[in-house]
Amino acid sequence: PASKRWLRKFNREQKKRQQAVNFGCCFITHVWKRERCTLQGKRLVKALQKTTTIKKVFPEWLSGRVETAEGPLTKETIKSIQEFGERILSWIK
Fold this sequence. Notes:
alpha+beta; 3 helices
């Protein structure tokens, strides 16, 4: 998938520059119900955790459901983003 290719390329570039990212998390936008993309979210979190240039990865992933392919985000998604953001901030501290 494109996201895994992007992640490999990102990892390669960061190694070349000898830089690392302190924190990472997974955010997936989609038009399906959350249950339909759960497996993809879990896989991407694992892929992030295997990346050597991201020091610490948040163990959950955020589902960003959109109304159409080009957006906007649904109201439920905006509310869950706020809650997710609060959990990430407390995790970083």
